[in-house]
Amino acid sequence: MAKARARHGGYIFQRPGSANWYVKLRSPGEKRKEESLGTPDKLKAEVKAATMIAEHKAKLLAARPRFDTVWKHALEPGREHAGPDGGKIVATDEQLIHIGGNGSVLKIEPNGGRALQLVSNSENVGPSNWRFAAAYLNADGSQKFDKAARPVVTAKTGDDMVLETYIKHAGLTGYVEKEARNVWALFRRLTNNKSLKDCNRDDGRLLVQHFEAQGLKSKTIEKKIAWPNAAVNFAIKEHRHKTVNPFAAIAPDRKDGVRRKPLSAADIKIIKAKLSRLDKNDQLLIRLLASTGMRIAEAFEIEGEEEKERGCRFAMVGHKTEQSLRRVPFPSAVLSYLPSRIKGPLFNRDAKDPADAASKRLNKFLREECGITDPAKVIHSFRHRAQDRLRAAECPADIRHALLGHEEKSVAEGYGEGFSVPQLKKWIDKIGF
Q: What gap in Å lies between CA 221 and CA 251, rounded to an integer?
């Protein structure tokens, strides 16, 4: 039998004299692999080769050099630097605090700024990728950005309108909108802009392969893929898309998540003793998370003119979903540390994703300053502690849900305004710090 030559970019072929189809792959950093697919039926061979091809494409993408946005410090953080006129400059991860010779704070400014950093896996970078890297770097290794070197932005197609329509319908904004767009753009790159109507679940699994190669847990992968999955489901419902949803049920549950533990009384004692090592912004953030059990992203939702009900100060948080949207009274444990009146964002938003940056800072504080190294104990563990403290105080389940946010929202819970803020404050004070 004559050899059937696949078109350029194909992966399966037939050898002369053999009826069976073979797959040929050469992933970055690996030897070329040829393997019989054990069938003369081309369609069956394509199905059997799909997983291997998906893994190969994920490795190709992971090996491609890319630019990541990083924060470049102006002064080394975590130490004091000499300032003018006998003063000093205290450098934190994000701020430069200028202190005069008399001890007064003269000004506070960002410690550096955002920069682009070339990231690549050197052992997997082949000649084509060396050329790619060279297009972005000068001979001395410094960055150059000219029109010829900038990547071309792919024009939006009818497939992209599936996502755009869903974003508008769901009212996605901020971080979640950005995540949805990033996952969609990644899918288009992994499939070489393959038309959505021609995609199947094996194409969708390219996303799973990519995220697993990055070391992400299965629950995190499931959340990321939820955005394109919801967009296509909405398009199908609206009769805008009539083929299979390539993202439906493609994220396997590998039971690889770390079960978070609540912080113990001994942990809290250590944290309070070391709290002064953080700047005032992060000290307040820890006090708020510990005494309310709110998510760290919710703390960064507190902004604008504060609200009161019968003299009780509270914040509206949980805007991400209807179940989590709620009123959270400021507990007594944090009131004395708050501004006398909140008129703008309560916490600094210098970073691109301030909640994520704060999470990394505070988890580092737990590990390095407080010696809490158990991987199951993180900043989110304050939320688990709050749940346990409320249970121990025999707080009714519906009030716990009102304070911490519902996992599911029943029809009955959708009526009325719920519990009064003074009622909620009585119980949130049971958490303490």
A: 7
Q: Does the predicted model carry a pTM greater than 0.85?
A: no
Residues 6+ away with beta carbon under 8 Å from 147 = none
Give the chain's radius of gyration (CA, Å): 27
The helix (run of H) or strand (run of E) holding residue 361 is helix 354-364
What residues contact residue 63 under an 8 Å CB cut-off, 6+ apart?
28, 29, 120, 121, 124, 125, 126, 129
384, 262 Cβ separation under 8 angstroms: yes
Query: Among positive and negative, which fits the CA dihedral 30, 32, 33, 39?
Result: positive
Dump pLDDT digits (tens) for 187-196. Answer: 988 888 888 8
What type of residue sits at position 234?
A: F
Q: How far apart are CA 389 and CA 391, in angstroms?
A: 5
Give the number of other Cβ atoms within 10 Å of residue 54's Cβ. Answer: 20
Query: CB of 292 within 8 A of CB of 386?
Result: yes
CA distance 294 to 260: 15
Domain residue spans in the chain?
12-49, 74-111, 158-237, 265-428
CATH code for the structural domain at 265-428: 1.10.443.10
> Hey, how many other C-beta atoms are within 10 angstroms of the C-beta on 174?
13
Q: List alpha helices for 367-430, DSSP H.
A: 381-392, 397-404, 421-428
Q: What is the pLDDT of residues 85-117, one digit of tens each?
A: 778 888 887 788 888 877 777 788 888 776 666
- Whole-number Å distance between alpha carbons of 307 and 323: 21
43/18 Cα distance (integer angstroms): 17
